Task: structure prediction
Amino acid sequence: MDTYRVTTKGQVTIPKHVRERLNIGEGDQVTFVEQDGQFIIQKVSIVPIQNPSIRDLYETVKAERDEVFHNLKDR
Result:
């Protein structure tokens, strides 16, 4: 496991291999989700849906969360 230093501003550079794996590029947004005492970084995807229902939004977030969990288990 690699470790990374936190700056005085509380910032950490996301390592290149993680950015590539999550397809994160300049200008993208990420979020941190707490689950069972651990934080998971997720890329925020903007999905253009006209008049999205709560269910549509839930399914989109769930699918992305499941993909992140799957990727973490592969490590």
